[in-house]
Amino acid sequence: MKLGQKLFISHVAAIAVGVAVLGTALALVAPFNFNQSMQRAMGGPGPQAGAGKGMMMHGGEDTESDSDMMAGFAGEVQGYFRRAIYSALVIAGIAAVGVASVASWTISQRITRPVREMAQASHHIAEGHYEERLVSYDAADELGELTASFNQMAGRLAAAEQLRRQLIADVAHELKTPLASIKGYMEGLQDGVIEATPETFQLVHREAGRLQHLVDDLHQLAQAEAAQLRLNIQPCDAAELVRAAADFLRPQYADKGVGLAVELPDEPVRVRADFDRIRQVLLNVIGNALWYTPSGGSVTVRLTRQDGMAAFAVQDTGIGLAPEDVERVFERFYRVDRSRSRASGGSGIGLTIAKHIVEEHGGRIRAESAGHDQGSTFTFTLPVA
Ligand code: ADP
Q1: Which helix (H) or strand (E) holds 309?
Q2: What is the pLDDT of residues 73-119, one digit of tens each?
Q3: Which terminus of the chain is more solvent-facing, meaning fewer CB atoms within 10 Å of its CB: N or C?
Q4: What are phi and psi of 107, to 5 degrees?
């Protein structure tokens, strides 16, 4: 049975029960009240009792027949009264059930309409129409709340679907270039257009390496987004983390001619961290600083303590970031300058993974920049051990 029918039947049943209770109560109370009123009207305790008293008082024949007449009259009036009451009750009952049925039908329809629309909309969404929304009801009741949460859920589903599509498009785009390159070299080799020199093989190898890098990044991103990074968090020396990452990249800094300075506090700072993952974050941020800073520039890695957290700041004198890019660099596949980033072998996933890693540690990561060519600073925090 449908919800509307159930509501309708329950309303009508409630009215019917009300009418039945009213009838029963009336049948029990009305005759008694009527008798009392009659007694008062006739000035005696009651037709039957009055007759008995009269007999005792006068003991005459006339008085007895008067009393019988009175009793007969009272019984007749009571009969009329009962019939009048019951017929009024039947008419009122029919009218009440009739009016209640109309009201109940209208109310049931009002209540079930949003529920019906919600059912239809969820079917639509299940079929892939993520743009489906319900007309929001102003009512500040549970149905209004349900409609609002339904629309919110539909919005989130639409956003997730949009991200999924975007992800597939981005992955396809990222795979296309190195694959086309490898295919081109192979065809050239087959046709004899390209010579089979060690340089050619190195080029093919580099493209395959790029593919490998992308697949590894995607694998890590998938793990990070599913919160499955399985961090091995232990107390570690924050200065050692900074030194490990900086020392690893120092030769590349020297090659490009970018200065690398490390500033550490005097007291040791111990953080609760997965050493390898945080080293990876530092390598990503310090590596980016090198890539986006021209020769002659400088990068400073600074470790400080801030409000019970350890702060790792990587400040460069490089190309900087426009205000609209400061937040977006943490989005997956977001690159300010695609061609420049592609040359680095980067796919715009590094900072997304870094953000996940830092946040899983209970820290925060942010980027700051005064604008183009003003350098940028990437700072992330970790809880102190
Ligand atoms: P990629 O591998 O492409 O560098 P990331 O996720 O590490 O990917 O960085 C995303 C984007 O953020 C980069 O493509 C670049 O545009 C911007 N970016 C990152 N670090 C810096 C920096 N130090 N200075 C300027 N831009 C940066």
Answers
A1: strand 309-316
A2: 778 888 888 888 888 888 988 898 888 889 888 888 888 888 888 89
A3: N
A4: -65, -45
